[in-house]
Design a protein that fits this description.
502 residues; mainly alpha; 23 helices; 4 strands
Length: 502
């Protein structure tokens, strides 16, 4: 009761004049304008400042009342950052453990400001216990620093000495972790920022990995492990060693790395499952990948971004494995999701492109007449560096459509656009497989759809395509359907037309 009395006195004396949070309930006649504005935005009733100001005040957005309302709403939304929920399926994530430490430290610090050391000490000790359990060294350091002041103010020299000793050890570990963090972000930047930079720094990444391994063995710090693990996976993805990623992730999923046990509270199961699934896809281990994803779908909460990501990999695994009925079932399930329409436009476009490719390979021909894909096939996409891979995939799909239609002039137009990509971007941003597919497309155009001539000229390239299956993630391409399957479809289309006497 004494603690409650102290807290009541502090809050009564120092509370804010206005309630600093939104009342997240239905709008009624007593609702604040901030709550009304929030509801309008949430349900999509307003998309611009002018729309919002007109609906709320009947004026344009330069109205001072609207600008003040917008500022108040933003501040209240930021205040809600203290109360976000990070629990999935009633399982706490490391983000929630970290959130608890931050809240306890914030509360302890505010109480120290008010001179209430008794409750502050209790919260600092709780924060320290949590931080040590979850290996949040930064928060352990803050907790110990708070306790140094509290024990000094309370004149408790023995406790003060113990905390100072622990503080020095923690500070040394934190220094090592910070150096590791800086090295990780620097080398990561250097190997992803450009092809030229990657070539110059990829060997340096190997040296950094070896350095991190020694630190991991020495400190057994989960924070150092995280940077080590992420750099190993990134390096292997960029160099195309996806088969090498799988056993590493299997060991981590089992709770250890390099024979050292991992902090089970910090392991992010969902991220490991996503990485493993992607590795199976890129390593062309489709059967194993399909089984693995199916066994782990239960860990993904429906409608979250992670749910859409794992279903994308699941769909592509089945599509690559020619399990077209299963792929159709997956994509129907995704489209039927109640939150699909709330996805970003680029994400919806990607799923629609997946759908177009699926119906193409599933039906074999005439697919465009039966499905509404006009927007995808009619307009040539303008070049956009951020959408290089997506646009190249659209152009390949369009090329297939116009083969089916036997429209050589349209094929030439698409080939020429891809030629521009080839000249300016394919050499650096696209893999050998995409460049090979472009050359095969060029053969189709140059041979004017003559199947016999095409088969003669394409033998070498189709063989090279088969020899270069695995591609590193350094490239921006989007190979929705394996190019081998695309080529099979092209040949089948041309044979069909040949039999009909075209």
């Amino acid at each position: 009761m004494e603690d409650l009395k102290r807290l009541v006195r502090i809050i009564s004396k120092r509370k804010q004049r206005q309630y600093p949070l939104l009342e997240l309930k239905s709008i009624n006649e007593n609702s604040s304008k901030e709550n009304i504005f929030f509801r309008y935005i949430k349900r999509g009733a307003v998309n611009t400042d002018d729309e919002a100001s007109k609906l709320i005040y009947g004026t344009k957005s330069d109205d001072d009342r609207y600008r003040m309302l917008k500022s108040r709403l933003k501040q209240k939304l930021l205040n809600h950052m203290f109360f976000l929920e990070f629990t999935d399926f009633n399982q706490k994530s490391s983000a929630q453990f970290e959130q608890e430490c931050i809240q306890q430290l914030h509360q302890s610090k505010m109480l120290i400001f008010t001179g209430e050391n008794k409750i502050a000490k209790s919260l600092a000790i709780k924060a320290l216990t949590s931080a040590e359990r979850y290996e949040f060294t930064k928060y352990s350091l803050s907790s110990l620093e708070y306790l140094v002041k509290i024990y000094s103010d309370n004149c408790q020299p023995h406790l003060f000495d113990d905390i100072v000793k622990k503080l020095r050890i923690t500070r040394d570990l934190f220094q090592l972790e910070e150096e590791t963090r800086e090295q990780y972000y620097f080398i990561k930047m250097m190997i992803v920022k450009s092809v030229n930079s990657r070539k110059k720094n990829i060997e340096n990444a190997v040296e950094v990995i070896e350095r991190f391994k020694k630190l991991w063995s020495k400190t057994k710090s989960f924070n150092i492990f995280e940077y080590l693990y992420q750099l190993i996976v990134l390096h292997k993805e960029l160099t195309g060693d996806f088969n090498g990623i799988i056993p590493i992730l299997q060991e981590i999923q089992a709770g250890s790395f390099m024979g050292i046990s991992l902090n089970i509270y910090r392991l992010e199961k969902i991220k490991i499952i996503q990485s493993m699934s992607f590795a199976y896809l890129k390593a062309w281990e489709f059967e194993k990948g399909i089984k693995y994803v199916k066994d782990n779908l239960e860990y993904f909460e429906e409608s979250t971004s992670e749910w859409y990501a794992i279903y994308e990999t699941y769909f592509l695994l089945n599509l690559h494995n020619k399990n077209y009925k299963e792929a159709l079932s997956i994509i129907d399930y995704v489209f039927d999701n109640k939150t699909f329409d709330k996805l970003l436009d680029e994400d919806k476009e990607k799923w629609k492109l997946f759908n177009a490719y699926l119906h193409l390979v599933f039906t074999g021909n005439f697919f465009m007449r039966n499905l509404n894909f006009k927007k995808i096939v009619e307009s040539v996409p303008e070049y956009d560096k951020e959408k290089e891979g997506f646009n190249a995939a659209v152009l390949v799909l369009q090329f297939l459509f116009f083969i089916e239609q036997r429209q050589l002039d349209e094929l030439i137009k698409r080939r020429d656009v891809l030629k521009g990509y080839m000249a300016n971007h394919f050499k650096e941003n696209f893999s050998y497989r995409s460049r090979t597919m472009y050359k095969l497309i060029n053969i189709v155009v140059e041979s004017k759809l003559d199947l016999k001539l095409i088969m003669q000229k394409s033998r070498y390239l189709t063989k090279k395509l088969d020899e270069n299956k695995i591609v590193g993630s350094a490239y921006t391409e989007l190979e929705i359907v394996p190019y081998e399957h695309i080529w099979e479809l092209i040949v089948n289309m041309l044979r069909y037309h040949e039999r009909r006497g075209f």
